[in-house]
Amino acid sequence: MALLRAFIRAARMVRNTSRLAVGLPADDEVLLDAPDERLGPALVAAGRGDYAPAAKLLATTREAAEWENRDRYAQRLASFARSRDEWLRDWQDAAPHDPDALLVRAELAVRRGWESPARAELLRQVGPLITAAAEGDPRDPVPWRIALDHARGTNAGHTEFEKLWGEAVRRSPHHYGCHVAALQYLSAAWYGSHRECFDFAERAAQDALPGSLVQALPVRAAFAYLTEGGGAVVARERLDLAADLAIGLSSTYAAADPWPAEVRNVLSYVLVRLERWEDALAQLHRIGPYATTFPWDRVSDDPLGQFLELRDGIRLEVAAGRPLHGGRPPGHPPVPASAHPRSEHGGRDHSDDH
Predict the structure, then answer these.
(1) Which portions of the chain have biased composition (kind: Basic and acidic residues) (predicted)?
(2) Domain that residue 77 falls in
């Protein structure tokens, strides 16, 4: 009987796996952190030493109050400047009080501070840069998101953090980046617990606007639980509800849309850990070619390779679970709620997982 079961499983894999690849991009077509059509030209120009397109892009987001785009673009430009910052220094020299240059400079300084063994000390030194960015445009919530990340790294107490949080939500009550920063602070790996993390995430998601990425906060809380370890056990039902909410959010966006790509990547990781293979395969189709560094850098030093390996694993699991004549499998046994999260990387060394 064991030999027969193995034969049937292998037959299912051979028959189904190639069919399950239909609609998925080839491995060499998958891109890691691909910029959108607005950011791409600014990064190309920065690579040539020209800061003007980046300045124009961020000025546009500020003038139009596109705070979500502004946050995402500022992070990507700062990430680029970590290894090539000549264009940013030229920009600062040409316009030392430009609120957009101040924003990127503050984000870059915080990221570099996080990378140092003397993190808390270095981060305290960059406080004035964040203040300058916040004063650049008092409407802008993005400097306050940076301040929230900064506060987590400097071991700020709850009272101080709540003051910063109040400033952030006063400017943009549903700003995704600020909510992610608060969620990280409340996580068990930092200054909260799994319960606090989930409670905050679920309340925020309930109050979120239709289509807002804030609805993905519970699945980020689930990801934190599944990777950070420690603390009380979270019920399987709560993890499934978080995944279901993120699936619903994902369905409101077009397939292969780069905007929700990170949320879909996080969701895929959680679905794999929950052994919801068919749902995970559906998200692969919605992700298309847009892999993101986060969350895969939390479990591997090769984020793109990890994502591609996961794609193969999902297809094999689905293929093995489907009957030879096709159709949907009856389901897989759930991961026990007592299963302890594991990760190759610690949860306390990252600041830029937005």
Answers:
(1) 341-354
(2) 49-173
State the Cα–Cα distance between residues 203 and 201, nearest whole angstrom. Answer: 6
Which has the closest alpha carbon to 104: 39, 55, 167?
55
Query: 209-240, pLDDT tens digit by residue?
Result: 999 999 999 999 999 999 987 778 999 999 99
Residues 212 and 309 in one domain: yes
Q: Do both 68 and 85 map to the same domain?
A: yes
- Whether residue 2 lies inside any domain: the answer is no
Nearest to 279 by CA among 320, 228, 335, 317: 317
- State how far the Cα of 6 lies from the Cα of 244, in Å rounded to an integer: 32
Q: Which pairs count as long-range contacts for 255-260, CB under 8 Å and 24+ apart, including other chains?
A: 255/285, 255/286, 255/288, 256/286, 256/287, 256/288, 256/289, 256/290, 257/290, 258/34, 258/36, 258/290, 259/36, 260/213, 260/216
Q: What is the pLDDT of residues 293-345, one digit of tens each?
A: 999 999 999 999 999 999 999 998 898 877 655 444 333 334 434 333 344 44
Q: Looking at the domain assignment, is residue 6 inside a domain? A: no
Q: 């071991």: which residue's tokens?
A: 155
Which string of DSSP letters, residue by residue, matches 250-313?
Answer: HHTS-TT-STTHHHHHHHHHHHHHTT-HHHHHHHHHHHTTEE-HHHHTTT-S-HHHHHHHHHHH
What is the per-residue pLDDT for 2? 56
What is the CATH number for 148? 1.25.40
Whether residues 328 and 278 fall in one domain:
yes
Q: Give the number of domains in the chain.
A: 2
Helical residues (DSSP H) of 208-235, grouped into ranges: 217-228
